Model the fold of this input.
Amino acid sequence: MFRQLYDWTLRLAHHRHAVRSMAAVSFAESSFFPIPPDVILVPVVLANRARAYWIATVCTVASVLGGILGYLIGMFLWDSIGIWISQLYHLEGKMEDLRLLYAEWGAAVILIKGLTPIPFKLVTIASGVFAFDFPLFVLLSLITRGFRFFLIAFLLKRFGEPVQEFIEKRLNLIGWICLLALIGGFAVVAFI
Done:
């Protein structure tokens, strides 16, 4: 099951538009798309470890730009697109709790959630809904997403070949762990 997806992603990682494709996924994930950019970031960096930090930069910038779109959805399109997204993630009844959390811990929410498997789009849209300070939102998004993507790039640049061997030997196990982490991120949002 995971072998075909892995092989497809590796083929994509060697394509001349790989970085652009990764940027598109990173942008979309921060505002509406459910799949995290790490799924493409990892093979793209493994395919070209010499450009790892450039790839992480592109992924970070695209994620923050997508986050700005998410912020704008929350601020200006909540009554249409925002409510639909909140229903998709079963957040309708949690908005008041989230508003209180943002009022007291907004910066920490952005920093922590940007590192976790919890979908970042929920943070970006909520930041717009609750009118979190926009320049601070952009700065915090740069910090948290940059940390995440540059950490991945650093580890893959430094330990790329052994990491790739490890992934390939344990592909099914890693695939299931990643799938469970993704589902777990959505479950945390829906049930907590």
About this structure: The two ends are 31 Å apart (CA to CA). The chain has a mean pLDDT of 82. Residues 2-191 form one domain.
